[in-house]
Amino acid sequence: MKKAVIFDLDGVITDTARYHYLAWKRLAEGEGVHFDEAANEHLKGIDRMGSLDLILASSPRSYTADEKLALATQKNEHYKELIATMSPADLLPGAVQALIDCRAAGLRIGLASVSRNAFTVLASLGITDKFDYVVDAATIAQGKPDPEIFLAAATALGVAPEDCFGVEDAVAGVASIKSAGMYAVGVGDPQVLRQADVVIPSLAQFRLADYLAA
Ligand SMILES: O=P(O)(O)OC[C@H]1O[C@@H](O)[C@H](O)[C@@H](O)[C@@H]1O
Ligand SMILES: [Mg+2]
C-alpha cells in the first residue's frame, strides 16, 4: 500500500500553466521567437532558467548571462502580475477533494513544484496547510526531469520512493516521478504523457483506490 502522495502544482492543482504560457509567449515574441502551445508543452515542469534557455535557443541572436537574468526577471514580474488576483476560486475541479481523500486514507502529502512562486500560489489558493511538506524549489539543484525534487519530497516525508506516487501534468514531471522509482499519475492527454502509469483528464477523475495498491 502506498504511504505518500506527491503532487505537482502548476497545471495539476491550479491552472497557472496558462499564466506561465502567456508570460513566456510575450517574452518570446519580444525576442523575435515564435512561441505557441506546442512549444509551451516542452517547457511545462521545466524551471525558469531552463525554460528561458529553451526559448532563446530559437532566437536569431545570442545573450549574455546578465541579459538572460534580466529576461527571466521580466517574465517573472509579468507572471506575478497574472497570479496576483488568484484565490481559492482558482483551484481546479477535484483538487481539494483529492487532497481530502489522500488525508482520509492516512497518506503523507507532499508538493514538488520547481516554481519559486509555489509558496505564494499555495497561500493564494488557501491550501498550504493541506501539505505535510512543500519542497522549496530554491534548494533543488536539478530540475525535472531529474528525480531530485520527488526524492527530496519522499525523504522529507519519511517514505521510501516505492511507497509513494506522484501526480503530474508535464512530460518532464512524469519522467522525474518515474526515474525516482514511483508510480506516476498523469493529468492531461495520454498521447502526451506516455510514460505515466495511468492518465486522467483532471483531478475530478482522481481515483485514490486505484493508485494505493499499484
Ligand atoms: O518561474 P517559476 O515560478 O519559478 O516557475 C518555474 C516553473 O515551474 C513549473 O511548475 C512550471 O510548470 C513551469 O512552467 C515554470 O517555468
Ligand atoms: Mg505542472
From TrEMBL:
Keyword flag Magnesium: yes
InterPro entries in the cross-refs: B-phosphoglucomutase_hydrolase (IPR010976), Beta-PGM (IPR010972), Beta-PGM-like (IPR051600), HAD-like_sf (IPR036412), HAD-SF_hydro_IA (IPR006439), HAD_sf (IPR023214), PGP-like_dom2 (IPR023198)
EC code(s) of this entry: 5.4.2.6
Cofactor(s) the protein requires to work: Mg(2+)
Disulfide bond listed as a keyword: no
EC class (word): isomerase
Catalyzed reactions per annotation: beta-D-glucose 1-phosphate = beta-D-glucose 6-phosphate
Organism: Pseudoduganella buxea
Official protein name in the record: Beta-phosphoglucomutase
Record family assignment: Belongs to the HAD-like hydrolase superfamily. CbbY/CbbZ/Gph/YieH family.
Record PANTHER family: 6-PHOSPHOGLUCONATE PHOSPHATASE, HEXITOL PHOSPHATASE B
Keywords per UniProt: Carbohydrate metabolism, Isomerase, Magnesium, Metal-binding, Phosphoprotein
